[in-house]
């Protein structure tokens, strides 16, 4: 059986590409060096696939920033104002990604959106009647030739027209642009054929989302045309199953069809139910491209056996479920991780080895007798035996949960009355989301502490000094509800993971989040359990330094789960409940220590929402319940806040209500009115702090601007429910701009309050 890789991580095993791009942005290296070094990276990545005998290796999966943006450049799908900059193509590309600033001109960067249900973000092209599509073949052809020069015949990868148009920001109907775009796709395929390309992988992940009938019809029209170019097209899908389009896809004579058999297990059912097209090769996505566990060969072979009943073996190619972009590069760089953990994991490079091994196993007549197979079964079995990672008491607790464990005793109406009497805050209370600027000094001291250069006592007294300063600052500015600043944490998920049982951390497990930004998600390896307090020490210290109310600051279960690699041997719901029980213990201990306002951030509640609408209810049900589990036991007088990082929640507003948090702060500065309308129309009746300024920008809004924003909010929503706050944590901002902005925010609030009192 042959093997296939949909795409390989491009950032490099030591994040070389990130460093190159950042150095190029800083003018520390020339364009020549950037091009030269990135070529070496590509070659290294191709070679490691070749060494593992991969038969179908991709090219054009490399990107300096994002492959969706590459597609926009490939077809000239970007606006005139960038073209008029008259930069060369690479700098135009970076301008689209980062924005452009000169003395005369300032152009905004393209917006970014999450790529399906991953933590990767793509740049959203803007397409309108003025867009002049044109082919820029340089990148795709030169990468093919580069690989050919080292003896590797690759399949170039492109994003298909349906996905490209449906995910772009389109003025009008996307179908109207096909007339111009399709001939360019045809020309591209023909030109690729001319330079010796045999196969092209054309990605249409949009097929795993709910499509309208007319979309499916459009799909058919598109591919009837493109297949006419006579190049071998591999239609690739990932992140789910393609139900709506399955029969249409089969009726077209694709050279290959790639289906995800990990997230899209239902795909096998479709194969079984509707059969297969004998002319088409099945690219079976059996190795997870999204998670980091060693594959269970017995499971993989089980799936293949089902498929083999319908499709003959010579028509099956083994591969990954999606691009390996979403997993770290290699375990080889994990020096500190013990062998017993490492052997349970597989990053991108190890997944190549898995494919090689599976190929070998399948060549043996009696698979079960293959030593590689036997070894795999043995290793997989060992996971559950690792000590201190599995806790029966936690799972017993979960199985005994009752409805009342998810409910606060008193209704919001009763609670808020008690809370208002107790806290006696002014109308339009002011607060912040939690973190204050993390300066270089703080990062330096933290890293010295982690390396053992300074002692724990020294580190703690430094953090305490910072907390006292930030408390003094907030009092001087006149904020009503204070925070401790989050100086003790590097990251809102990692910090909690480090203080809970069940988590593993890597040294180099970096995954691209967008452009040159990477994240290093923790691994939820076993049962999550809290054995000692996490934030209580810091929150009580901060509380003792002020007479004002100090918010306790926690990360919620869904955010911790969504920003980690998760187990696959128990359900997501069970993982979420385990984390929720741990956070609940922290909430209760904070309460016992007189922290009367507790914020539980669910920054990422929406991130892993299922792509198919029919699967969403189930996810939202347990996600909401997990949140409620964290605070169901607190007194009516304890005020629970939550914070969310996105404003796109029109479709999940009912679930947001169900969270039953007393106060919610939301990121809304970019799309304020729309979000307010959603709250208004849904009769959102709890307290809400629609972020009043965009913390992603350096800009300091004036008092006047703040006043206008506050007025537009109280025009829409009942003023006694409103909180005034920035739209997210201030961690990434400079100190100076933060102080000015908060001062203006508080001044504006006070002036508006005055008017109320007069009125
Ligand atoms: N409390 C966190 C902070 O202020 C929330 C961050 C977030 O929403 N991403 O940094
Ligand atoms: Zn946020």
Please describe what this structure looks like.
It is a single chain. The protein has 759 residues and is of the alpha/beta class. Among the domains are: 1-55 and 261-385, TIM Barrel, CATH 3.20.20; 392-399 and 416-758, Alpha-Beta Barrel (TIM Barrel). The chain is 43% helix and 13% strand. The chain contains 28 helices and 24 strands. The strands form seven sheets. Strands 1-14-13-12-11-10-8-2 form an eight-stranded parallel β-sheet. A six-stranded parallel β-sheet has the order 15-20-21-22-23-24. Helix 18 (440-450) packs antiparallel against helix 19, helix 23 (572-592) runs parallel beside helix 24 and helix 27 crosses helix 28.
Average residue-wise pLDDT? 95
The percent range for strand residues is: 5-15%
Q: What is the CA–CA distance across the termini?
A: 79 Å
Helix content: 40-55%
What does the main sheet amount to?
8 strands, parallel
Count of beta strands: 24
Structural class: alpha/beta
Bound molecules: glutamine, zinc ion
Briefly note the CATH topology name of one domain: TIM Barrel
